[in-house]
Design a protein that fits this description.
Strands 3-2-1-4-5-6-7 form a seven-stranded parallel beta sheet, with helices on both faces. It contains nine helices and seven strands. The longest helix has 28 residues. The chain is globular. It starts with 8 loop residues before the first strand and ends with a helix. Helix 1 packs across helix 7. By secondary structure, it is of the alpha/beta class. It has a single domain, classed as 3-Layer(aba) Sandwich (Rossmann fold). About 45% of the residues are buried. Bound molecules: NADP nicotinamide-adenine-dinucleotide phosphate (NAP). NADP nicotinamide-adenine-dinucleotide phosphate binds next to helix 1 and helix 6. The site of NADP nicotinamide-adenine-dinucleotide phosphate has 29 residues, from helix 1 and helix 6.
Length: about 270
């Protein structure tokens, strides 16, 4: 595939843009003058966001309804973008989810879907559009999590491991891209008030007293870090301290404490 998007509409391609952090990333990128292509499964919510952005006098984002955990979805997305005459110069890999519970208890197919979305689709989209992004000297923002700094996450094991992958992959890709004028940033939010927790199976009352951040605060921090060319963005002071301390914390302490905490959060304590 040619990396030259001549005559193409340059777009910031944002996955998981139907709600939460991804929808606010779309609002922030649009506010800063980016034309957008939005992807998620919920077409109605994507259309509503596209209408909202268009009502502000900005270009109406392209909307693609796709289940990115499905094999072949990325190729279909690439074909649809090409048909629409669009080529990404910015890629935001934000779609992701987790499931609470022990590996032995959760449905294996659902656990593999976490890998398919958080890891496989993220890598596939990145590799698929990398030639265009390099040609455009563009940007990539990958959404990992504060959990990527932990040695592992008993009770959310596949999710923590997937985000460790995203952080490692993104830091390495960023280094590879340094000589090519492509900015690559990994965004590592802590607890952010979105639909993530209910999909993962958190007991709502276990989160009631956690301050957390809003999706917009996280989106603004991610955008600012990407524009500033930062390798890694950890939004919020508490999260920054956590990320700094974790490498010095013994696994024999962190893993059992985390295990107990996750049991409480899923109402099993
Ligand atoms: N919230 C937090 O505390 C937190 C903390 C750290 C990191 N993160 C990360 O931030 C990212 C955004 O999560 P969020 O907190 O904004 O959660 P969210 O509100 O649940 O949003 C997740 C987004 O991903 C999309 N999505 C889910 N499954 C998909 C699939 N199979 N194919 C395509 N799109 C899919 C969802 O749209 P549809 O349902 O319409 O498909 C939605 O737009 C995730 O990668 C998450 O791991 C979240």
């Amino acid at each position: 595939m040619s990396g030259e998007p001549d005559g193409m509409r340059r777009v910031a391609l944002i996955t998981g843009a139907s709600g939460g952090i991804g929808a606010d990333l779309a609002r922030v990128f649009s506010r800063h003058g980016h034309d957008l292509a939005l992807v998620a499964r919920s077409r109605d919510r994507l259309d509503a966001l596209a209408d909202e952005i268009a009502a502000l006098g900005r270009p109406r984002p392209l909307v693609f309804a796709a289940d990115l955990a499905e094999r072949g979805a990325v190729e279909q997305l690439a074909a649809a973008l090409q048909k629409a005459g669009a080529s990404p110069d910015v890629l935001v890999n934000n779609a992701g989810f987790g499931l609470m519970g022990e590996c032995v208890a959760l449905d294996p197919a659902e656990q593999l879907a976490i890998v398919d979305l958080n890891v496989r689709a993220l890598v596939e989209i990145t590799l698929r559009f990398l030639p265009q992004i390099v040609a455009a000297r563009g940007k990539i923002l990958n959404v990992a999590s504060i959990v990527s700094f932990f040695p592992g996450g008993p009770g959310l094991a596949i999710y923590y491991a997937s985000k460790a992958f995203v952080r490692s992959f993104t830091l390495a890709l960023g280094q590879e891209m340094r000589g090519r004028g492509v900015a690559v940033t990994v965004l590592c939010p802590g607890y952010t008030r979105t639909g993530f927790q209910s999909r993962a199976g958190f007991e709502a009352e276990t989160l009631a007293f956690l301050p957390g951040q809003s999706a917009m605060e996280v989106a603004e921090a991610g955008f600012a870090g990407l524009i500033a060319g930062r390798r890694e963005v950890v939004p919020g002071l508490v999260n920054k301290i956590t990320a700094w301390l974790l490498p010095f914390s013994p696994k024999a302490l962190v893993l059992p404490v985390l295990s107990r905490l996750q049991q409480k959060r899923r109402g099993n304590a």
